Amino acid sequence: MKHYAIIGGGPRGLFALESLFTTLYNNAPDAQVKVTLFEPFKYPGAGWVWNPEQVASNWLNITERALQDLPGRPEIKLGDDVIPAFPSYTEWLPEEKQNPPATHPDQFPPRAKMGTYLNARFEVLAEALKGFGLLNMVEETVIKLTYIAPVFTAITENTSITAIDEVVLTIGHQDTELSEQLQEWKDHVAQTDNALLFTEAYPVEKMINANITSESVVAFRGFGLAMIDQIRALTLQQGAHFEMLDNDTKEVAFHAGENHPQRFVPFSLDGLPMVPKPINKAVDKWFMPSDDAINAFAKAIHQGACGDHPAKDQYFLLEAMAAVVAPLFLKLGDKAIQHDLTEEEVYFLTINYLNNKSLAHPLLLSHHTPILEMMQQQVEMAVGEAPVSLDYFIGQVWRHCQPTIYREFSYPAIADDVVAEVIALDEASKRYSYGPPVESIQQLIALAKEGLLDLDFVNNPEITCVDGGWQLKSDDNKVVIDVMLNSVLDSPQLVTVDTPIIKNLLSYEMIEPKHTDLGIRTDDYGYVEVPEGKSFVPLAVLGRLSKGSVIGVDAILECFGPRTISWSERSIALMKNEK
């Protein structure tokens, strides 16, 4: 009997477990396996990111319409026994919410709702597997992993599990070493009265329960999705509310409470806001490439990443994207900002913009536009009430092309530096492709109009530690804040991860980074690559910490993607070959 250990029981651990037994049923029904799954969180399947008990003001940034691509699990036969299928996310919803009209505003569910689904999906499978004696759950964190061929030992604070034949690492967000800036602020707070610092963006409940009052002035290090969740938590959970004024545009008015801060001060390195996704399917169709365009794009990406003549730089991606964007933008007609450019001129303008996001052009929204006005213009584009700029258009087309990029760019055969360049391009797109719902931006607009959201310091202010907190300075404006919230999520940069198991694996040279800015180097099936001349080690890494070998590690749909299936099929094939 082959003994697997799955370390990490969030969505990827769930799908690894599902894939293993589904593949076993389909390819080696007579084989015998058992699994030990390590997950300390009380809601396995969900993980802490999708905690079913978190506040409802934490929203997903993906629509329920897009979640139609999250598949269910087929039934699994184990001898004469059957584990019943589990529905897809969409099938799990009430029937009236499964296929809303194209003109209805898209729904963005709370993270807790997704967590409830994931946990329910896990529990059905786990209960059956435990009943058959095939699954052992260890509700602890693995702090050390040793390998003396051919077996591993996984060690927690209280337990040691031995005789493990294969390990699958499916851990998600990991603690990292504090940046120089955050460490300086942490040292400052230790010597300062009445100043609060939160170095991690989640859980927001810590902020809700802290001594943050109506007298506090709160700054946010970061101007993205986590900041929006934090602001909602600090207002809506303290008696404030938003009044819906227009359901078609999601325009809202803010009604303040007495107990929450009356001034919020966000800032980031570029000061640019997240960009809202289209309001509904009807508007989103403007940005959807045809199947032929996506197929041509896929071939170009695959050729650049894995072809006979791998790309020497990131321009193959820029050119492939521009080839999709240019004809589609011209088809917009009067829905776009008026222009007289040819398809070829739009093609080259797209490449130039992707290579330089601050490019000035009449078809591009100027970065010098006041931030409140910029958010208002982008909302108008998102709801179809204003001509679409080329940058907004490119961002939404990129979102539709993203699954193809993630699929075709997995395990690329190009230089690591080029991989880092491509990932940087994708990260830069996330202002648009991972953008929030229109309603989130409308909430920020309402807060700014009421004077609670101060946008005067948003673009990389000068920050000085002072008595009682920090001083932010931008041009001639100054403000002293006493609460600093970090809303920047750590990137999966292996060399900065500060958790015991990763430090342990690095120290024993069982893993290595693909690039100083990236995650673990793995092969085409998710197994850790070993140096030439060394024996294969049955250690697979799926998900966030393999960034660089794969991309798209932060998307919930990618947790249920083909790369995990590739691992399970390879693992079962190796097991059959050993017999």
From TrEMBL:
SUPFAM superfamilies: FAD/NAD(P)-binding domain. InterPro entries: FAD/NAD-bd_sf, HpyO/CreE_NAD-binding, L-asp_N-monooxygenase_NS-form. Pfam families: NAD_binding_9. It comes from the Bacteria. Residues 5-174 form the FAD-dependent urate hydroxylase HpyO/Asp monooxygenase CreE-like FAD/NAD(P)-binding domain. This is FAD/NAD(P)-binding protein. It comes from Dokdonia genika. The lineage of its organism: Bacteria, Pseudomonadati, Bacteroidota, Flavobacteriia, Flavobacteriales.
